Amino acid sequence: MKEQLRILLVNKFYYPRGGDCICVINLESLLRRLGYEVAIYSMSYPQNLPCKTSRYFASEVSFSEGVMGKLKATERLFGTGDIVRSFQRMLDDFRPHIVHFHNIHSYLSPIIVKLAKEFGCRTVWTLHDYKLLCPSYSCLYQGEICEACFTDLTQVLRRKCMKGSLLASALAYGEALWWNKSKLQRWVDTFVCPSSFMAQKMRACGFDYSKLEVICNFIEEDKLVALQSIKSDEPDSEPYYCYVGRLSEEKGIRLLLEAAQSLPYQLYIAGDGPLSDELCVKYASGKIHFLGHLSSQEIVWLVSRAKAMVIPSVWYENNPLSVIESLCMGTPVIGSEVGGIPELIREGDGCLFSLGDKEELAEAITAMMTASNIDRVAISQRAQSRFSEGRYWEALKKVYGIEDKIC
Fold this sequence. Notes:
Blueprint lengths: L5 E5 L8 H15 L3 E5 L25 H11 L5 H12 L3 E4 L9 H9 L2 E5 L13 E2 L2 E2 L9 H4 L7 H13 L2 H7 L2 E4 L2 H9 L7 E3 L6 H8 L11 E5 L8 H9 L4 E5 L5 H8 L4 E5 L3 H9 L3 E4 L9 H8 L4 E4 L4 H4 L5 E4 L4 H13 L5 H11 L2 H12 L7
Parallel strand pairs: 1-2, 1-3, 3-4, 4-7, 7-8, 9-10, 9-12, 10-11, 12-13, 13-14
Antiparallel strand pairs: 5-6
């Protein structure tokens, strides 16, 4: 009988900071319930969840600290400092068969992929953003979609894409040159792309298509059980639509608020971010309500009773969990026709509007708010089947290559 399969999950943070972290936490829970031995490797951080392997974590780095702190963070970018020693100890003691990487740039380092490969592990890397194609992650320049670095990495320097800083952009440029496509493809067995859109961009930029697998994100079983108990048809004092997410430029929140000002319907905004204070001052009104950060339970309550959820992004969204969760609650989605969003919103699940088109967005909101034939039960049932743990695991276990292994 073969020894129990050991799987190491790696992400730069280990708390529900964003979609990447939530995906890792959900995957850890799934793998443990399936009976696999699972460990976590991350960066030490005060908000991390309790973890048995935290003693192995890389030390915390920050690019906003003093000179010594910045030097330490710069070392981390290029895979030097304590990262090699701490990850090697993790490998030596846990001895994983599979290492599944998620977001590792900057606060960890791709050097750990090389170490895992040399240790003899199967290496899988789920891509949550476009860092391997765009040194500044987002494929945006001055608020517009940009693919300049797909063919010329020097553009990140010329345009000072990283925070408008020449120094930060130079570091991003150097990082992209050092951790180049040739190296990464030698060390990674499979890149998991949560959307076909991302896989197409990876292939267009020269990544080996045989190393790319498209596996959509999933919603955890516990949340599905909770959603099934929700009575979303309970009447509200007044119908409303909502936005849940980060209040930042790439999310298109300004576009939504501009459209909302011209409409008579109630809009609830859940989330915070760098634009929070500015937007509250400018747009808060009797029909636009800023709720700030909400708990998971509060978000479920808000979204499940909304007439629609709006995803107005102006960047290449990959595979947003907000769309998946909204559909699983039976709430239709009005989404920007960009990135991986159109793959999630099928006929009957909501509608799409042209990227950046305020008038078209306003028309879509009006149509959804006045619609009387939306089958929320059907939306929920379709979504819960499409985004289930079972569907995700059937695809992932092939990537892991464990169909014939005994655990």
